[in-house]
Amino acid sequence: MKLIRKLMSLKNAEKIVYEHLYKYLSENKKIKEINIIEALNKISAEDIKSPIDLPYFNKAAMDGYAVKAEDTFGASETNPIILNLVETDEIFSGEAKKIFTGDELPKNADAVVMKEFCNEVDDFVEIYKGVHPNENVSRIGEDVKKGDVVLKKGDVINPYHLNMLASLGIKKIKVYDLSFGIIPTGDELISLDEINNIEKDINKLKGKIINSNSYMLYGLVKNLGFDAKIYDAVEDNKEKLKKAIKTALNENDAVLITGGTSVSERDITIETVKEMGDVIVHGVNIRPGKPFGFGIVDDKLIFMLSGYPVASAVQFELFIQRFFMKRKKIKIPLKRNIASELGRVDFVRVRVDKEVEPIRITGSGVISSLIKSDGYILIPENVEGYEKGELVDVYLL
Amino acid sequence: MKLIRKLMSLKNAEKIVYEHLYKYLSENKKIKEINIIEALNKISAEDIKSPIDLPYFNKAAMDGYAVKAEDTFGASETNPIILNLVETDEIFSGEAKKIFTGDELPKNADAVVMKEFCNEVDDFVEIYKGVHPNENVSRIGEDVKKGDVVLKKGDVINPYHLNMLASLGIKKIKVYDLSFGIIPTGDELISLDEINNIEKDINKLKGKIINSNSYMLYGLVKNLGFDAKIYDAVEDNKEKLKKAIKTALNENDAVLITGGTSVSERDITIETVKEMGDVIVHGVNIRPGKPFGFGIVDDKLIFMLSGYPVASAVQFELFIQRFFMKRKKIKIPLKRNIASELGRVDFVRVRVDKEVEPIRITGSGVISSLIKSDGYILIPENVEGYEKGELVDVYLL
Questions:
Q1: pLDDT of B111-139, one tens digit each?
Q2: High-pLDDT (> 90) share of chain B, %
Q3: pLDDT for res B358
Q4: Is the pLDDT of residue A1 over 50?
Q5: Cβ–Cβ of A159/B212 closer than 8 Å?
Q6: Whether B328 and A352 lie within 8 Å, measured CB to CB
Q7: Residues of chain A with C-beta less than 8 angstroms from the C-beta of B265
Q8: S-S: A354 plus which of A1, A367, B331, B376, CB 3.0-4.6 Å?
Q9: Cβ–Cβ of A354/B163 closer than 8 Å?
């Protein structure tokens, strides 16, 4: 009888997988430099420091007149102060220069009086309202200082980052670059292509399930900014599986196999990979997601995921997603108690509002729980559960 | 002097823009039906109801033996119950059938005994542990019931949805389909292409800023699943702007113009669009983002956004993003007081942890505040601000 005899702790399993991922990325230089616009939603492989101060000069934040602020102190509607209009790049006490939003301030000017409070008369301007130093001015480095980190290694590049990078004159950026082959396994799988009208075809589905994990894994890989390729489903047959793995390994950096990782007689994935290379992790003390395997074949990475949708989603999250991308973590009070077993990490799908509500589920195959959740809690091994009202860490999806 | 004389309320402006967007989408059938895998991250244009129960039959959730639960009551290690092994599609009292995870239960069976608690001897199986009805069974409709809505109009299709859709035999889905042309305007703009080394080129930038909003808007449009095309920056010149708008209108459903929407002498965007068609909204009582314009030219949509990065990001969020995509809303206590002006909606960028921290900012041009925020608060017109500790609605980015 095949058994996952000793379950590895999540911490150890993550450490092993992450070390191999890191090693693979570095040794194979799986990083490419691309134009920033192509980097949207990809993962930065470098810290980006600002090469300059932004703004790079003191500039007007309003249309009006650049002045030395002290010249305007005390100005009011009944008692305007009159300054000489100049057009030079430098002003002196008693002078003002007409300026538009975004223009560089002339030397010595330290404030802008909004045009609404000014009146131009010949070569003079009447100032009806005093300004303090820096008023209506965007100062050098106010937004970003030279050397500030504006994007960190591991950040997903979003539209706002693109704005920042362009503003700093940064045209190219290094991102992680990987390709994943996805191999679904299991005699019970039927292809979506074979279904024309599911209500009429429902009898085709007796004892079968539609190969749906491939679509999810494809989406998860794509959303990390990586290439994904789905291969045809493979029966529970070692030779056929070996052939599929070989093809996928040739064409990709890593392979995701879904199905056949548990201990049933039909579960041949782990054994098959063992015969082709090394299985380094098999069985992790988490729920759901226990039957996870990780191995190396031909120096490439093989992730063996459960055939259950939720379990495979959890495994992808813990062993791949979280390596590349930090999830936003917030603290919110629990809506009701959650129990957990000591010695095991529980991955609890939740809905977040003003409280965190664990989603009631009955099995690791319940796909609707994935769709309903917008975050998750990880209950550590040494915690028996949390009580209603407790502030818990929620990772947002 | 040009003035935004009367500011429209956010509510009215949104109503007008949303109605025109809705009208445009319906009249022009800007919806396409595509394969689910291509629909990743696009916006569903339909409610999807499940055509079937999922699972579509009662199935084993474990490897073991399908039984009538009542036959096993009282079974224990010291007092096993012995059942006849059968291979039929229907079992009767006193019978059991070997079954694998995922297999359909034979008729009359209502539970599965895990194989660990069974021992096969010839044509019999010894049961060492009783099960209750439904134990180790995934019941029909447990995940989704026929008619349940699994994806709503307006939902962004994520990898988990793909799993659900495939599981239900749904191959194609209708998504919104729009194209946006992006026109940056302003004499002060310099193209990123002209910068080779920003530290050396810093003098080129005196009085100029790099055209960075185009990149952000491109990313924002793309992340709604739409097509985006960036056009060359246009000087503050009506004829040149008209020409650019005409080209962009010919090639797209909608045009985003960034810059020239305020009331400075150089701000010609609104006037230019007025000469080509109708400007329906100009000036909204929000901060930042006040100088927003919306118009119709040749029956197509023109969004006139501020030239300031933050203001244009806010305008995009309020008038485009939120039309298509609901933001996740949570309630978290405020870390410190926020003041707001009565009569105006304040859009406050925040960072969320166990409290909500408003990001201190000094101007609508501060791009770093966009990068630092992971959510925002909208302070309504009739609220003067919020106090530290108050529970506030935060929209997560």
A1: 999 999 999 999 999 999 999 999 999 99
A2: 87
A3: 93
A4: no
A5: no
A6: yes
A7: 63, 100
A8: B331
A9: no
Which candidate from B40, B100, B365 shows the least CB-CB separation from A264?
B100
Taking only the tens place, the pLDDT of each residue in B344-354 is: 999 999 999 88
Q: Residue B240 is encoded by which pair of tokens?
A: 């040149």
Given this model, what pLDDT does residue A5 score? 66
3-state secondary structure (DSSP) of residue B40: coil
Q: A52 and B199 in contact by Cβ < 8 A?
A: yes
Specify the DSSP class assigned to residue B41: T
* H or E element in which residue A397 lies: none
pLDDT of residue A362: 60
CB contacts, 8 Å: B366 with chain A: 142-143
Instruction: Name which CATH class applies to B329-396.
Output: mainly beta
Percentage above 90 pLDDT, chain A: 86
For A125, left (φ over 0), alpha (ψ -120 to 50), or beta? beta
CATH topology of domain B59-138: Molybdopterin biosynthesis moeA protein; domain 3 (2.170.190)
Contact status of B356 with chain A (Cβ, < 8 Å): no
Q: What pLDDT score was predicted for residue A83? A: 97
Model confidence band, residue B42 (pLDDT cutoffs 50, 70, 90): very high
* Contact criterion met (CB < 8 Å) for A40 and B222: yes
Q: How far is CA A272 from CA A235, A258, A276, A277, A320, in A?
A: 13, 13, 7, 9, 22
Residues 103-162 of B with CB under 8 A from A: 103-104, 138, 142-144, 148, 150-151, 158-162
Q: Name which of B212-221, B250-259, B355-364 the model is least confident about.
A: B355-364
The dihedral of CA B151, B155, B158, B160: what is its sign?
Answer: negative
Q: Which residues in chain A are closer than 8 Å to B148, comparing Cβ atoms?
A: 368
Q: How far is CA A357 from the centre of its chain?
A: 23
**Closest CA in chain A for residue B218:** A159
CATH topology match: B10-30+178-324 vs B59-138: no
Chain A residues in contact with B210 (beta carbon < 8 A): 166-169
Which of B138, B160, B219 shows the shortest C-beta gap to A158?
B219
Q: Is A329 on the interface with B (CB under 8 A)?
A: yes
For chain A, what are the domain ranges?
A: 10-30+178-324, 59-138, 329-396
Q: Which two tokens stand for residue A151?
A: 């994007």
Cβ–Cβ contacts within 10 Å for residue B150, how many? 21
Average pLDDT, chain A: 93
Give the right CATH number for A10-30+178-324 from 3.30.200.210, 3.40.47.10, 3.40.50.1820, 3.40.980.10: 3.40.980.10
Report chain B residues whose CB lies below 8 A from the CB of A162. Answer: 212, 215-216, 218-219
- A138 contacts B362? CB cut-off 8 A: yes
Q: Chain B within 8 Å of A374 (Cβ-Cβ)?
A: yes
Q: Which residues, 6 or more positions from A34, have their beta carbon under 8 angstroms from its beta carbon?
A: A42, A172, A173, A175
CA-closest candidate to residue A297, choices A243, A240, A259, A226: A243
Per-residue pLDDT reduced to its tens digit, A249-300: 999 999 999 998 887 777 899 999 999 999 999 999 999 999 999 999 999 9
Question: Does this complex have an ipTM over 0.90?
Answer: yes
Instruction: Read off the pLDDT band of B207 (50, 70, 90).
Output: confident
The pair of structure tokens assigned to A306 is: 């459960």
Closest residue in B to A101 (Cα) is: B264
Owner of token pair 């491109």: B218
Does the pLDDT of residue B208 top 90, yes or no? Answer: no
